[in-house]
Amino acid sequence: MTTTDHHRTGRARRRPGRAVAAALAAGLALAGCGSAATAADDDRVALTYWMWDANQVPGYQQCATDFEAANPDVLINIEQYGWDDYWTQLTARMVAESAPDVFVDHAQQFGKYASFDQILDVSDRVEESGLDLDRYQPGLVDLWRGADGGLYGLPKDWDAVGLFYNEDLVAEAGLTAEDMGDLEWNPEDGGSFERLLARLTVDANGVRGDEPGFDKDDVAVYGMGYNESGGGFGQVQWASFALSNGWTYADRNPWPTEFAYGDPALAETIGWYRSLIEKGYLPPLAVATSGIGTIESMGSGSYALLIEGAWNARAMSELQGVDIGIAPTPVGPTGERASVYNGLSDAIYSGTPHPDEAWRWVEYLASPACQDVVAEQARVFPALTASSERAIAAFEEIGIDADAFAVHVEDGTGTLPPVTDRWAEIQAVMQPAMDSVLSFQAEPDSLVAADDRVDGLLADD
Questions:
Q1: Of 190, 269, 344, 390, whose CB neighbour count within 10 A is largest?
Q2: DSSP state, residue 248
Q3: pLDDT one-digit tens code per residue, 161-180
Q4: What is the per-residue pLDDT for 4?
């Protein structure tokens, strides 16, 4: 999910890099993509499939090989790009009418493509095939419903966030895994979660954040890290806190008519979150955005804890010299935990010269045959409920506690990301607005003015 991040800019914080083409299955490297792709030398139809997560390529290579065995008239060429390059390249290819036949789509991007008729509505094909959409995890199909009621992709995977923590640092602070799973927070005094951060924070002289003489201006280990302000999404920053404080993104989802960035519950949450920076438990925004990644900072011991997505669980578990535990997000004032519950889909470019073959590939990607293969890779949680359960077992086998994420599906405490065709414009308002608040250049109540600007964008539709 997968995402944005799956999962997600659910996934906007991960894996920048140069484009790397991975021509799979037959080992061919095609220069073209999408409508520019031509039939293979053996007269098979060549489909190009784009994805951004390099870690998932092996699983989908196996899916492509299996698909080709059952569909000998089709050749699948997979091309993988880093996150930032992916959307830049895809947008350019859409404009040039040479996009890939099939591509991994994100909930915050698909509204734009659907509004410009750049991806196919597969509703009729789903009906004709008799595909049972109830097989997917709750809510995931709804992410891909257009404003016209059409279905613009099939669910691929899902994600949620959890608390990733350095087990040694937590133990040195006198806390246990049970303590980590029993945390709560509130915007008044921060609850047991803020007390945990204070205890985990250590200054250059070895003084903890809850001890006399702590120097908040010379911190060696921050209780919690983050990568940027989160803009209007905040999936791995403040969203879990705001959502468990009774806030939600908008009046409805998908296709909201008003956002809720001016809600006092959000200002209250952001005010508390910012106070953690002021107290020295979180790094200043300038430090968080200095270019050193959050996972690298966990690996070096600079951060004791992170809110991070399931899509990075495997990468976190593979950090050298650091044992990472995972706990669910803390219980908030609502009495429940919360997480953004995101997902990805596989979409078909409307300009593909091979829509029937592209549909066969998308249908296969969404089937148990492929999603079970992906589940065994223990990288993401597939969208099919049965395959998702396989993935949870696969994660457990390599020592990753997947229940910290699954709890949000089981308890219904996940919130779907907002789906709109104006997300890029919304972020253009909310990113600098949230940056200003977390860098102490503006107060949390300034988000009311930002909210007015966002709603003005929607009113123009």
A1: 344
A2: -
A3: 999 999 999 999 999 999 99
A4: 39
Give the residue among 361, 335, 327 at the shortest CA–CA distance from 103.
Answer: 361
Measure the CA–CA gap between 427 and 408, rounded to whole angstroms. 26
Give Cα separations from 371 to 141, 245, 322, 391, 433 (angstroms): 16, 35, 31, 9, 39
Token pair of 167 as six digits: 């087990």
C-alpha distances (whole Å) from 374 to each of 56, 139, 366, 369, 379 are 8, 20, 11, 9, 8
Mean pLDDT, residues 396-420 taken together: 94
459: which 2 tokens? 């009113």
Contacts of 387 (CB under 8 A, 6+ apart): 368, 371, 372, 374, 375
Cβ atoms < 10 Å from Cβ of 214: 19
Give the span between the Cα atoms of 322 and 316, in whole angstroms.
9
Check residue 34 and give its pLDDT: 37
* Per-residue pLDDT tens over the stretch 9-38: 333 333 333 333 333 333 333 333 333 344
CATH for 161-340?
3.40.190.10
Which amino acid does the sequence have at 127?
E
Q: Among 24-38, 103-117, 235-249, 267-281, name the one with the lowest average pLDDT.
A: 24-38
Buried-exposed string 362-384: b where 16+ CB fall within 10 A, e elsewhere: bbbbbbeebbbbbbbbbbbbbbb
Let me know if domain 34-158+344-406 sits in CATH 3.40.190.10: yes
Q: Would you state the structure tokens that stand for residue 52, as one six-digit string? A: 């951004």
Q: Distance from CA of residue 398 to its chain's centroid?
A: 22
Q: Are 343 and 419 in contact (CB under 8 A)?
A: no
pLDDT in tens, 62-121: 999 999 999 999 999 999 999 989 999 999 999 999 999 999 999 989 899 999 999 999
DSSP per-residue codes, 284-341: -HHHHTSS--HHHHHHHTSBSEEEEEGGGHHHHHT-TT--EEEEPPPB-TTSS--EE-
Assessment of whether the complete model's pTM goes beyond 0.70:
yes
Which pair of structure tokens corresponds to residue 64?
Answer: 């492509």
Q: Give the β-pairing of 154-159 and 381-382.
A: antiparallel
Largest distance between two CA atoms of the chain: 75
Locate CATH 3.40.190.10 in the chain. Answer: 34-158+344-406, 161-340
State residue 103's pLDDT score: 98
